[in-house]
Design brief:
heterodimer, A: mainly beta, outer membrane lipoprotein receptor (LolB), chain A, 13-stranded antiparallel beta sheet, B: alpha+beta, Multidrug efflux transporter AcrB transmembrane fold
């Protein structure tokens, strides 16, 4: 299971909600796998919207336009994210899921000129200056964690599974994540990130889930809050569509090229 | 008015049992509060809450994190050894455990909950704090909401709601904070390297896999980047440091935390490793924790000395016991008041008990002297008689002392202000106790009033005091002009010494040479870049990115200039050091590229790529940067010069052209500000005290000449105090700065007593010489006795563990004694020269 943007915004879109009512005797890992395997489109998905960075409870805020493209290739997700305005215009992150291996992530910064591969040890680090981590954008795998299923609960209007997952990597800054998953859509609607101190230091919430095609549902709002830094990043999706997208974009050497979807 | 007071006092004298009972009851109540007294020597708290540097420091610490660092140095033959790395891993883990468990422990103790219950409260705060204090407060006082939203048991919710009605949310949030923000060591320090198209930010070593190869690799990494030199490892490879960044938590929590860290270190020594703990939080907290012990150790000795002095004066147990009770009660009432008002004990206020002991002894001596000298044989009549003869002088002396100390309340330095307020209250207590409880206890005695030897010897010139006073009068009484000239010469010589007095308040001055903390501090300062931190903050005025080539290149040249110019500056670190390394690694590690990026955008993008921790050097929005200066111990003037140079390096043109503000911050900045306040406060408090005392003197004597004469002993005492400080190289600091004010507060009493008695004698005898002699017989003896007791009491402070307290005690003893002698030598001389009544006045008096 992944608590990443891909899984909440794109992978979550690719499987019909009606087909994913999971069995109630599933283990935590099976639920996580189910989340990973649902809401995927082999055709492709385009999401456009605004990302707003702001302090919690006031202070200055900054809004940037963003575009996210994703598609499923035989059960493996490929995603690409780009800022299209502000001083971050052109900053692009490519994520390629690989079977049995670490996912590949590349960050392209226009002034630096060439894409830089994100190290595995940097997966928990923030994606540029946002409160999303690189991992939230698709950097982790199911096998990076161990899982435990918690009692189901209602979260607002959602009837949910609850699981907790523990990083296998000892140097992870988190002790566990507690994930609340909407049973109807298999979209994680709430993730609590626990530090080793035992306190929640980061939360991620998805809301306003909309069906954009026959089989795909998308949370139109995604909010990540860094509790320690009292800072938040909010994504408001204004455009979501399932469509064929150019596979050529998903190439580390073409991260500077213009997209038709921009 | 005094008659009215006497009337009320006589009522209490008629009910001695009730008065004594009330006195004992009040004393017990105050005593019960004393164990809760707090200690605070945090330099930050020397400055008022609204001090601009404190505000700026707090604001920027919100952005960059606290700059309060505990430094734990680990020394061995080889600091790159597996043993060292494993010890650091263990110690870091222990401190983390302690840190993470601390809030539950603190909340459990404050709210009287079990640790598990406190953990549940912490979970609730964790969930709701982000929504703001109001949301948290409304949750924690509403049992129904807690039960519904937190799924707590209804009874537990009610219990928490009840507890929260007695505790503020602010206090809860204080306790909720972890004492430590971050722990940094070789085990979690970032290293930057390029590898193909990867830009790798990795730890210097994987602490879980510290084998020979990785230890070698770690050493190579450390040696490859000068950033780590003397910041993480000493140049001789023998010492490495673990830095514990403290959060701004409650001062007592921090002190307790430090003690527990020290216990962890001492409980598990490692054979080949020497561990040193230093850094400002440790130093200031160590002052606080040792101060209580010092006080407990010295105060009984002060009282013992007073007992001896009282015995030598009165040679009768009543003359010892009742003034002693007054001293003890005064101290208990005052310390109890401090605790109730939550005024903490500091390095400044540590002398309060001794001051009050001295003050109460003075009032007790005056009262008891006149009590025993009363011709009445009944105790009640003798008490009334003593109050009639000496009461007004005691009241006036006390009130002037109250006002004198109270004038310190105008100080900008919090601890000095608190000192003024609490000492003024304490002196008032001493007065109340002297004029009510001493008589009450005396009146409870069933036996007859004893007749004392010194009363019998009065005027016989056989006892030491009388012989000494007779000697003074016989040798100097005939040469008032010469006495005054000698006084002027002494003041002039003192002024010469005064010119070399330096302002230097450095927390390390509180410790003796060879003490554990001083050794640790010296070791870390010698081997590392410095244990004191000064920050230079550059922030954009319009919120734009501040990492422009112009700003960064100025920062670069500033760092180089500062390091070259001042040997005390051990290291400067800024975002530049990281940008240069990134630039180098982005160019295949070519050292030619160890330079700043050429454009703002490139610097920005490097920082976006950097996944390590540089939050303490650049703000998230890149609109603020902080340069860290590690500085070794030095004189305050040198440190102030470094700060001055740093701020001047970013002059008006630079600020204007780049639209930035530049400020200093960090511990050293606050320390320098505190020193400035000591100096300014010394001048203003002296002027204020002298003005206020002059006004009071005029109100008492209604005579300009007498007012001026009453100030002469004070001026001589103050001048000689500063002169001695200059000659003995004793610095002016928050403790020694108070000597002058204490001397004014206590010394003015001598003038009041002497001049009051002199005027009475003049009325009676109408002859200056006879009046002086008569004054010597009564008040002169009391002044001598009092000066001796004050001197002896303060000299006990010479045995303090803290050199600063010892210096302070010695100076007060010296100055008060000088003032006492000046009162009995110079006042008569001045009277003879300036205030000899004219023939007309003589007739009028007659």
């Amino acid at each position: 299971m992944r608590t990443k943007l891909i899984s909440t915004l794109t992978a979550a879109l690719l499987i019909a909600a009606g087909a994913v009512y999971a069995q109630d005797n599933m283990s935590g890992e099976q639920i996580a796998q189910k989340v990973h395997d649902t809401n995927k489109s082999s055709q492709g998905i385009v999401l456009k919207g605004k990302m707003t960075l702001a302090g919690v409870g006031g202070g200055s805020s900054e809004a940037r336009s963003m575009v996210l493209l994703a598609y499923d290739n035989a059960g493996l997700s490929n995603g690409i994210f780009r800022f299209t305005d502000s001083s971050y215009r052109g900053t692009t992150m490519l994520t390629i899921e690989r079977k049995g291996q670490e996912n590949l992530q590349y960050l392209f910064l226009p002034s630096v000129g060439s894409p830089r591969q994100i190290e595995g040890s940097d997966r928990e680090k923030n994606f540029v200056d946002t409160d999303f981590s690189n991992e939230d954008l698709g950097g982790s795998r199911i096998s990076d964690y161990t899982y435990n299923r918690l009692p189901d609960r209602k979260a607002g209007n959602y009837d949910c599974y609850m699981i907790e997952r523990f990083p296998k990597n000892k140097s992870s800054k988190y002790s566990k994540h507690v994930v609340t998953i909407d049973k109807a859509t298999m979209i994680p609607v709430d993730v609590q990130f626990y530090a080793k101190s035992g306190r929640v230091v980061k939360t991620m919430r998805a809301s306003n889930i909309k069906q954009i095609s026959a089989n795909i549902r998308v949370p139109m709002n995604l909010q990540v809050v860094d509790i320690e830094k009292r800072h938040q990043t909010v994504i408001d999706v204004s455009f979501a569509q399932e469509k064929n997208i150019n596979r050529g974009y998903f190439n580390r050497n073409r991260l500077n090229m213009q997209w038709a979807e921009q | 008015m005094y008659k009215k007071l006497l009337h009320y006092l006589s009522i209490t004298y008629r009910r001695p049992k009730l008065t004594a009972f009330c006195g004992v009851l009040v004393t017990l109540l105050f005593a019960s509060a004393i164990p809760f007294i707090q200690f605070d020597n945090d330099i930050k708290n020397f400055l008022a809450l609204d001090h601009p540097h404190r505000i700026s420091n707090d604001r920027l610490n919100e952005v960059f994190g606290s700059s309060e660092l505990i430094l734990i140095g680990i020394e061995s033959d080889n600091a790159y050894s597996k043993e060292t790395v494993e010890y650091i891993k263990w110690l870091q883990g222990e401190i983390e455990k302690l840190n993470w468990g601390y809030p539950a422990k603190s909340i459990s103790s404050e709210l009287k909950l079990t640790v598990d219950e406190a953990s549940m409260v912490i979970d609730a705060v964790n969930r709701y704090e982000i929504q703001g204090k109001d949301a948290l407060k409304s949750l924690l006082v509403n049992p129904e909401q807690m039960t519904n939203e937190l799924f707590w048991d209804a009874e537990f919710s009610k219990k928490i709601a009840r507890k929260m009605k007695r505790t503020s949310v602010d206090r809860l949030l204080q306790l909720y904070k972890f004492p430590v923000d971050e722990i940094k060591s070789v085990n979690n320090t970032d290293f930057i390297r390029g590898e193909g198209d990867k830009f790798v930010v990795e730890k210097l070593i994987n602490q879980d896999n510290a084998d020979d190869a990785s230890l070698q690799a770690m050493k190579a990494k450390v040696k490859s980047w000068s950033l780590y030199d003397r910041l993480l490892y000493s140049a001789d490879d023998r010492l490495t440091v673990l830095s514990v960044e403290m959060n701004p938590v409650d001062i007592n929590l921090r002190k307790q935390f430090n003690i527990e860290v020290e216990k962890i270190i001492k409980a598990s020594p490692k054979g080949n490793l020497d561990v040193y703990m230093a850094g400002e939080p440790v130093v200031t907290d160590r002052v606080s924790s040792s101060m209580g012990d010092d006080l407990k150790r010295l105060l009984p000795f002060v009282l013992l000395v007073m007992v001896i002095i009282l015995y030598l004066i009165f040679r009768q147990y009543e003359g010892v016991v009742f003034p002693l009770i007054a001293m003890i009660f005064s101290v208990i009432w005052t310390l109890g008041t401090m605790s109730i008002l939550r005024i903490p004990m500091s390095m400044v206020s540590i002398s309060i008990p001794t001051v009050l002991t001295a003050v109460a002894s003075a009032y007790g001596i005056h009262f008891m002297t006149h009590y025993f000298m009363s011709p009445e044989s009944g105790r009640y009549e003798s008490c009334i008689d003593s109050m009639k003869v000496s009461g007004l002088a005691i009241v006036m002396a006390a009130l002037t002392t109250v006002v004198g100390f109270g004038s310190l309340a105008t100080s900008d330095m919090t601890h000095i202000k608190n000192y003024g307020i609490i000492t003024a209250i304490g002196v008032f207590y001493s007065l109340v106790i002297t004029v009510t409880l001493i008589p009450a206890f005396l009146l409870l005695r069933k036996n007859v009033k004893p007749a004392l030897d010194f009363v019998k010897k009065e005027g016989s010139a056989k006892d030491f005091s009388s012989r000494f006073l007779f000697f003074i009068e016989s040798k100097l009484g005939g040469h008032p002009g010469k006495v005054l000239i000698a006084g002027v010469i002494i003041v002039a010589v003192s002024l010469a010494g005064m010119l070399s007095v330096k302002v230097s308040m450095n927390t390390m001055d509180f410790f003796q040479e060879g003490s554990e903390i001083k050794n640790a501090d010296e070791k870390l300062n010698a081997k590392l870049s410095g244990t004191q931190l000064l920050n230079i903050n550059i922030e954009s005025s319009d919120g734009s990115a501040v990492i422009t080539p112009e700003v960064l290149s100025r920062v670069e040249s500033f760092q180089r200039e500062l390091e070259a110019k001042y040997r005390l500056v051990g290291k400067t670190v800024s975002v530049n050091d990281f940008l240069k390394k990134m630039n180098q690694e982005m160019h295949g590690g070519d050292t030619a590229y160890y330079k700043l990026p050429e454009t703002t955008q490139m610097a920005k993008e490097y920082l976006l790529l950097y996944s390590g921790d540089i939050d303490n050097m650049i703000s998230k929005d890149m609109d603020k940067i902080r340069i860290h200066l590690s500085i070794k111990r030095g004189s305050m003037s040198d440190l102030a010069e470094i700060r001055g140079f740093a701020l001047q390096s970013f002059g008006d043109d630079f600020r204007k052209n780049n639209n930035v503000a530049v400020t200093a911050g960090g511990f050293l900045d606050l320390m320098i500000e505190a020193n400035i306040l000591v100096f300014k406060g010394q001048i203003s408090s002296l002027i204020m005290s002298l003005v206020v005392v002059s006004i009071l003197m005029y109100l008492i004597f209604r005579n300009i000449k007498l007012t001026m004469i009453s100030l002469i002993p004070l001026l001589i005492g103050i001048a000689m105090n500063f002169g001695l400080m200059g000659f003995l190289n004793i610095p002016l600091n928050a403790a020694t700065a108070l000597v002058a004010s204490i001397s004014i507060g206590m010394g003015i009493d001598y003038s009041i007593h002497f001049i009051t008695q002199y005027r009475n004698s003049m009325q009676e005898l109408n002859d200056v010489d006879k009046a002086v002699r008569k004054t010597y017989e009564g008040t002169g003896r009391a002044i001598l006795s009092n000066a001796a007791s004050v001197m002896a009491g303060f000299l006990v402070l010479l045995f303090s563990e803290f050199p600063v307290i010892a210096q302070c005690g010695g100076l007060i003893a010296f100055t008060v004694t000088v003032t006492g002698f000046a009162a009995i030598i110079v006042i008569p001389a001045a009277m003879r020269v300036f205030n000899r009544p004219s023939a007309g006045e003589t007739q009028k008096v007659a």
